[in-house]
Amino acid sequence: MSTDSKYMCLALQQAHFAIGVSRPNPPVGAVVVSNGIVVGKGFTQAPGNAHAEVMAIKDAGPKALGADLWVTLEPCCHYGRTPPCTQAIGEAGIRRVFYSHPDPNPAVRSKSKEILEAAGIEVFEGILSEETNRFYEAYDYFVRNQRPFVEVKVAQTQDGFIAGKNRERLMITGDEANHWTNSLRSISDAILIGGGTLEADDPLLSLRGLEGNSPERIVLVGKRLLSSRYRMFHEGKKPIIYSEVPQKEIEEIAEVRLLRGNNFLSHWTQIIDDLSNRGMHRLLVEAGSQLSKLIIDAQVYNRFHVWVSPKRIGEGLPWALTIEMDPSEKDQHISFVNHKFNGK
């Protein structure tokens, strides 16, 4: 790994700690490097508090003078809840700034580079861009459309089933697919499942072995009346429940949001509006049979992921589609984009 990539990787690691903390601001990470040694690191704090660059510079202290700053997103250059990061960079005596991803915000894009260069600071961009393009994909979409980027994930057997007969839970995919899912959860603001998945699997929807972000947990239940017995009501932050009917049994242990309208599209629009107002950039939907069909029929997703296992079970619970793949001894992944919702 090149030195450029190494330092930007460290900054990206810091950015992961800001997911769910900095919202609605983007998650940003930064490191300060002096003579080849990392002397400061930081990530963007809650709104109204310091951004990643300021945190890293404070962490570096006097060692920031003449040092290099590596940051995942183009530094801000305007006054918001906090002063511009370009000002803090100049005052700290930073010699060079390396950033990976341009900020889509028109108040920032390319202006920061001009401001820093006018102050005599060298600026380099695009380091590790492939990784950060993916990381900031949802933020870019949110800035341009004021809507969260919706990714849907389904795992099926080779013969098209997502659960066993009578909805028995199956371990469909192996370690590679499960690690991939966990990684996607870690960069998502929220995970949404349907009431059927909650009843069948009783999931916690937590990250397994990863530090940092704990996504909001959301259940779309329709007219089901939920019991308080499910694990997610007793571990972690209160889940958000979108329901067509009052949920008396769980109203103290969950945030219940009543749905208006009389069809899935009106309900989905309400959910997305609500998540937009909460500043959520990326929504991961781990869809079951009914929810996957509703989402596909309504075309209300940005990207759909399907993991296909080599296992065949003969009979079970099918989902909205059956994806056929070449026979393989390992899990295979396919994704497709809904260009209608792909954004600008």
Write up this protein.
Helix content is 28%, strand content 23%. It has helices spanning 3-16, 52-60, 85-92, 111-118, 129-135, 137-145, 175-186, 195-201, 264-277, 289-298, and strands at 29-34, 37-43, 68-73, 96-101, 122-125, 149-156, 161-163, 190-194, 216-222, 240-243, 255-258, 282-286, 303-308, 317-318, 332-337. With 344 residues, the chain is of the alpha/beta class. The model has no long low-confidence stretch (mean pLDDT 91). It has 10 helices and 15 strands. Helix 3 (85-92) links the parallel strand 3 and strand 4. The protein has an 8-stranded mixed beta sheet. A 5-stranded mixed beta sheet has the order 2-1-3-4-5. A two-stranded antiparallel sheet has the order 7-14. It is elongated and about 65 Å long. 44% of the residues are buried.
- How would you characterize the largest beta sheet? 8 strands, mixed
Tell me what portion of residues adopts beta-strand conformation.
15-25%
Secondary-structure content class: alpha/beta
Q: Give the N-to-C terminal Cα separation.
A: 33 Å
Strand neighbour order, sheet with most strands: 11-10-9-8-12-6-13-15
Give the helix/strand layout.
Blueprint: H1 3-16, E1 29-34, E2 37-43, H2 52-60, E3 68-73, H3 85-92, E4 96-101, H4 111-118, E5 122-125, H5 129-135, H6 137-145, E6 149-156, E7 161-163, H7 175-186, E8 190-194, H8 195-201, E9 216-222, E10 240-243, E11 255-258, H9 264-277, E12 282-286, H10 289-298, E13 303-308, E14 317-318, E15 332-337
